[in-house]
């Protein structure tokens, strides 16, 4: 099933790139992520496990959807270097 990372750590990776988060409505488990690119917002929906964990596969998918991959000019080293 893959490994998971803590929600706060996941958020820290993305916040540095202007990504904002919106909590689920009605107590669901799916958060929305927003990043403005070229004047338009990209949105990615991320499910949490047990309200506090994110599977690694969703981290990769979110990076791709929000244009934060090496192809987009953001190296893995840079992306994961949270201080």
Q: How would you describe this protein?
A:
With 83 residues, the protein is α+β, with helices and mostly antiparallel strands. It has one domain. The strands form two sheets. Strands 2-3-4 form a three-stranded antiparallel sheet, covered by helices on one side. A two-stranded antiparallel sheet has the order 1-5. Strand 3 and strand 4 form a beta hairpin.
Short overview:
The chain is an alpha+beta fold and 83 residues long. It is built from three helices and five strands. It has helices at residues 7-15, 56-65, 76-79; strands spanning 4-6, 20-22, 30-37, 40-47, 53-55.
Which strand-content bin applies to the residues?
A: 25-35%
- Give the assembly state of these chains: single chain
Question: Largest beta sheet, briefly?
Answer: 3 strands, antiparallel
Distance between the termini: 29 Å
Mean pLDDT level: 92
Unreliable runs, pLDDT <50, ≥5 residues? none
Order of helical and strand elements: EHEEEEHH
* Portion in helices: 25-40%
Which structural class fits the helix and strand makeup?
A: alpha+beta
Number of domains: 1
Evaluate the radius of gyration. Answer: 12 Å
Number of helices: 3
Morphology: globular
- Total beta-strand segments: 5
Looking across the biggest beta sheet, what order are the strands in? Answer: 2-3-4
Which helices and strands occur, and which strands form pairs?
Blueprint lengths: L3 E3 H9 L4 E3 L7 E8 L2 E8 L5 E3 H10 L10 H4 L4
Antiparallel strand pairs: 1-5, 2-3, 3-4
Keywords:
3 helices, three-stranded antiparallel beta sheet, 83 residues, single chain, alpha+beta
